[in-house]
Amino acid sequence: MEWTKENASSEIRDLIASAQEVAARGKASPNFTRWIMRCATLFEEVFGPASRLTLAFLSVRFTGSGNFFMSGWDLNEQMANREHQGFIDGLNHGVGVLQAGLDELERKSFSEIYQSKDTGKESSQLIKIIGLAERKLRKVVRAVPTKEREVQDAFESLLVGAEIQYTREGPHIEYSSKNYIPDFSFDRIDLALEIKLCVRPGREKEMIAEINDDIMAYKTKFGNLGFVIYDVGLIRDTDKFADQFSRDDIFIAVIKH
Fold it and tell me: Which one in 4, 11, 107, 217 has a CA-CA gap of 20 to 30 Å to 256?
């Protein structure tokens, strides 16, 4: 198929509309397999392998995750319910990315949509970095951290283990009479990454202001930005927190301890 803005928008709307039936049929149904393959094809062919939308969809998990406390005797049923809820949550996240795709198609001309800058190994490395933050970081932070450096050091260990080249605390960027230094930078994929710790009341509002300032400064040098927020239980609505910074070239990962 030769994609146009019109048929891409129509395909996205159809995928959003069919998500409810996919949910009803369940994760094991061929409907889900077909739905997720249609989504992946659309994102890769319309938005491109380097698009933040494509990377966001490919990182969606359709399974239960995080801490889970069981009670009572019917453990199998509780595990099944947890997995199903993870599947439903994943579908909801996927639909959210599809809706963001519609927004992108409405905002830009079709020729501006496709992003192929970080192809091949570059694209896979960005996906790997996001995966390290979302799926591995909590596992290597054993005690509740009290300083951001503890989380930064843990994430650096993950980068070393994954053999990803990076720069720690560099480069220095002067912007609006201030000096900004990203916690990590990755020249190969044009990415600056900040790690922030939410460990006390009031910190959430401070981080919002800090992230907005960081975006303005780091965008003068980097095409892609990432923010990993390690939260010890103070951010009530993580989706709302992340969505306020949502852009194709910015990813926000909120990690719960």
Answer: 217
DSSP assignments along 214-235, one per residue: HHHHHTTT-SEEEEEEEESS--
The one-letter code for the residue type at 42 is L
168, 183 Cβ separation under 8 angstroms = yes
Looking at the chain, the number of H-run helices and the number of E-run strands are: 10, 7
- The structure tokens listed for 184 are 């990590």
| Whether the Cβ atoms of residue 103 and residue 137 lie closer than 8 Å to each other | no
Q: Which helix (H) or strand (E) holds 186?
A: strand 184-186
Q: What is the largest CA-CA distance in the chain?
A: 62
**pLDDT value for 232:** 85
- What is the rounded distance in angstroms from the CA atom of residue 50 to the CA atom of residue 225? 13
The structure's pTM equals 0.55
Query: Is the per-residue pLDDT at 21 higher than 80?
Result: yes
Residue ranges of the domains in the chain? Answer: 5-113, 121-256
| pLDDT value of residue 67 | 46
Residues 6+ apart with CB under 8 A from 89: none
Range in 52-66, 71-85, 94-108 with the lowest mean pLDDT? 71-85
β-pairing verdict for 167-168 and 184-186 = antiparallel
CATH topology of domain 121-256: Trna Endonuclease; Chain: A, domain 1 (3.40.1350)
Q: Percent of the chain beyond pLDDT 90? A: 28
Using an 8 Å Cβ cutoff, are 158 and 136 in contact? Answer: yes
135 CB neighbour count, 10 Å cutoff: 15
